[in-house]
Amino acid sequence: MAILGLALGVGWSYRQPTGLTLHHAQTEPWQSGAQPRYFLRLAAGQTARLVLEQRGVDLLVEIAGDAGGPFEVDSPSGRHGDEHIFLAAEEDRTFVLTLRAFSDRVAADGEFQLRLEHLDRATHEDVLRAAAEGLFHRARVTSQGIRDGRWDAESDRRFGEAAALFAELNLSERRADALYLQGKLRYTAQRYQDAAASIRASLALFQRPDADVELGHVLSLLGEWDEAEASFLRALELYDGKGSSAEATALKGLGDLQKNRGHFEAADFHLRQAYEMFQRLGPLRKRIATLNSLGALQLRQGASAKALELLQQALRETPPTDQGMRGETLLALGNLHLSEGRLEAAAASYAEALRWERGKGSRHEAILLTGRGRVADGRGDRAGATQLYAKALEIFESLELPFDVAISRNNLAWLHLAEGNPNAARSLFEDAVRGIEPLGGSVFLEGVLHFGLARTASQLGDLELAEKEIEAAVEAVELLRAGSPFEDRITVLASRHDIFDFHISLLMQQHVQQPNGGYDRLALGVAEQAKARSLLDALGSELATTALGPGEDPWAETRRLAEGTTARGLELRALERRGEDPQAMVDLRQGLDDDIRQLQVLQQELAVSNPSIAAVRMPRQLVLRQIQGRLLDSSSRLLTYHLGRQGAFLWVVGQDSVRSYDLGEAAPIERLAQRLSLQMAGRLRPGAHELLQTTLRDLSKAVLPPAEGLVGVRRLVIVPSGELFRIPFATLPWPTANSEEPLLSSFEVVYLPSSSVLIANRWRSGLRRHPSEGLAIFADPVFGASDLRIPAPSEEAPANHVDLPRLGGTLDEAEAVVAALKNISPLTLLGTQARIDPLLEGQMAGFRYLHFATHGIAVEEAPELSYLMLSQLDDDGAWRDGRLTARQVTALELNADLVVLSACRSGPGRPILGEGLTGLARSFLLAGAQRVVVSQWTVDDRASVELMRRFYSAHAEGMPAAEALRRAQLELRRHRRWSDPYYWAGFALFGDWQ
């Protein structure tokens, strides 16, 4: 009793219930922890209407004495609004009303007033209103604690009956409240179709943003994404940008929806907005949920490092007691581990998360079962995977979630394909496509399903159908890529490269069956479409704005027509789904056909009038015509490679010819290329020369075309693929020759990331500002405190300091370059002057030549962070960041004819599927350089000096850069000291050879 007394004595004292009388009220201060009580006696057949006025406090009213038992009254009026209470008595009854704070955080300095406004004999309407309010509030109280998908049939019934009574009383807003809360109850219980029906009915009566947000969540799960997006946007319009937690919830819902649709740039924008608002306003749980969404978005784009960082942050911030939120993050982590091939880590994440979901029949449980199925599939346990996928499908079907059902069918279909059951796979794929077509679908899932149908048709021998389906899959990938930020498009395309790979293989199969059908040329177009797309997107965007006058955009009409066809298509789908207005459907189909025909005509016209921009925007359709008509001369041949899981192919293109070659499996070629790269990169030991020649001969036989096809040719333009980006083709001998003479003896060898990149770059060169300055050379920077050219540093080295040795030979190289270009005035930036500031400040935009003689650091796992190291100290010994990263280079504005990166491993960087060239070389091309000379391994200092002296001397005599580089390499090779390829073959030219 003493303990109870102490508890009741904190902040308030007990008082007897106060009797309520008509028109008498008194305003009272609210005391924290108080629970004032009132009573009201009603005679049989009487009704009462009371108002609780809240001034700075949010209160609820518990009512005892009703025949149905105690219940609570609380409407969403907040801290400044009125609660309306209706009571009716069928017999003499005393009601006791107890006031309590809605939450423990209610301010202690508020006021309230409880008054009895009406007391009379009950009319029929009074009785109905009291009954409706009683049902509504009982249902609200009992449904507030529902979690984990449990179903509360009694609360649902009460909401429904209350809504019916409010309708009879013509109280539309109260009916809307009841239907909305019924919808929320059904959503929590995973009765999604019923939830959508209730919330739609509520919104038809009364527009409120929280109901629109709830409807958006429900429709997102049901795959009705167009209507879901409209709901979120309506809510955001009503919230009016005031920055509330409710608005952040709408932004997160919209971001998640856009992520599922493959609109990654928009998803990233809205999710980040939501996260910033949740950081400022709370609640913590929603902030963590948004981190999970951002992590999942990065993973969908292939940016696994970013995804891991976000998900680990979410785990750190999740309270240990919140197992539900921890489970959401573990699910996302499991998906990340799985995408990286870490099966055991993925299995552990899924298993831990599943501990809290097993047996609930929830959507979360089904998603976790799907993850475990993918792990089993990765382990080769197809029986186990089938069982897990089937269980997930059963749960999704019970919840009536068509999008998730389609994913489960897709998963099972791919298992059937792997087991050689194409008919079973086709049935599942087709069911999945039918399930999502009426909903507007998902770009991501549509691409995967059409890819599966293409593989199925191929297994069944129907190559024509396979071609049709793979075309649809490629279209989906292009839409997916276009919806991503430029910096993320590389990983988006790499993650879907299997689709392009299969398409190329399929076309080459058709070429074998019909050699004169032009299928090998179509395959070349697809291979070009799959290469360097992010680089082309950036170039295309620049061309579209640079080549035209202010406000001009010839592609605007194509965008308008494309948007129109999309809108008509969605409207047509909606009519078909509802089965309404056959004539309207006929008219829409006709309009859609007209728009498509007009779009095709306009695209062809623009392709003729703006051929170079068109080559970037529509590379597949125009690439061969552009290559043969604008890229090549009679003495050049283009060698385009494709190394994929379905096989390796080579196309040799001349001005009036195309020859294609099936090179067999890609894996042996990749292994040979890796071996050659390693052998070239190290100084040769005794006996290593023979091993090198063996590798060169083997790789030559694997990747080079017959020599007779290149008679009269003096230039080979190489578009590599995969590991072939790492190898110096100039060192390869002809496969039919017995000598060790390399290709360099007979040909210039230049490299391109893709043919379309050169077409775009040539077009850009005609638009750019002509360089007014000559040569700028950065050499012999100051890297650290041990350099005697500077005083002792004025402070300790910063954490990001990179400790590198001085490169004394680069000073000799700078002098050799300046001497060779004796007719060009140089800007020589040496020592502490060789810093990044002149570049970042735009001072290099007017130079024709840029030469960097310094350390180059390749960051394989993140090529955009590869860098040239310039001076880390200034004249006074103060530290500065000397790293010029590939990402920084991309943002520069250059007009250089030639950039030379005479730095260790400044070349292509890590090959990425669908992009190939990455790192510094790619960034300088994007920044405006016409051509870039890069090193492919750690070069020898003295050999570099000799090579650069000869290269620049030949170039100063009027030789194009590619020809000058070849001559310098041949001269170095003939010198006994430098005859080994390690010394002369380390540099390659990427870009225009003219």
Spell out the key features of this protein:
single chain, 994 residues, alpha/beta, 37 helices, 53% helix, 14% strand, elongated, disordered N terminus
Question: What secondary-structure arrangement, pairings included, does this model have?
Answer:
Elements (H helix, E strand, L loop, with lengths): L1 H7 L9 E2 L8 E2 L7 E6 L3 E10 L3 E6 L6 E3 L6 E9 L4 E9 L9 E11 L2 H20 L9 H16 L3 H17 L3 H14 L3 H14 L2 H15 L5 H17 L2 H18 L2 H17 L3 H14 L5 H17 L3 H12 L8 H16 L3 H17 L3 H17 L3 H15 L6 H17 L3 H20 L6 H7 L1 H17 L5 H11 L3 H14 L9 H23 L3 H28 L1 H7 L1 H13 L4 E9 L2 E7 L4 E7 L1 H16 L6 H16 L11 E5 L28 E4 L3 H11 L7 E9 L27 H12 L5 E6 L5 H4 L6 E11 L9 E3 L13 E3 H5 L7 E6 L16 H8 L3 E5 L5 H16 L4 H14 L6 H4 L2 E5 L3
Parallel strand pairs: 1-3, 10-13, 13-14, 15-16, 15-17, 17-20, 20-21
Antiparallel strand pairs: 2-9, 3-8, 4-7, 4-9, 5-6, 5-8, 10-11, 11-12, 17-18, 18-19, 21-22
Helix pairs in contact: 2-3, 3-4, 4-5, 5-6, 6-7, 6-8, 7-8, 8-9, 8-10, 9-10, 10-11, 10-12, 11-12, 12-13, 12-14, 13-14, 14-15, 15-16, 16-17, 16-18, 17-18, 18-19, 19-21, 21-22, 22-27, 23-30, 24-25, 25-26, 26-27, 26-30, 27-30, 28-29, 31-35, 35-36
**Distance linking N and C termini:** 98 Å
**DSSP helix fraction:** 40-55%
Q: List the total number of helices.
A: 37
Number of distinct beta strands: 22
Label the structural class: alpha/beta
Query: In percent terms, what proportion of residues is strand?
Result: 5-15%
Residue ranges: pLDDT <50 for 5 or more in a row?
1-14, 481-495, 532-552, 611-622, 909-916
Radius of gyration: 36 Å
Mean pLDDT metric: 78
Q: What characterizes the major β-sheet?
A: 8 strands, mixed
Looking at the structure, what is the overall shape? Answer: elongated
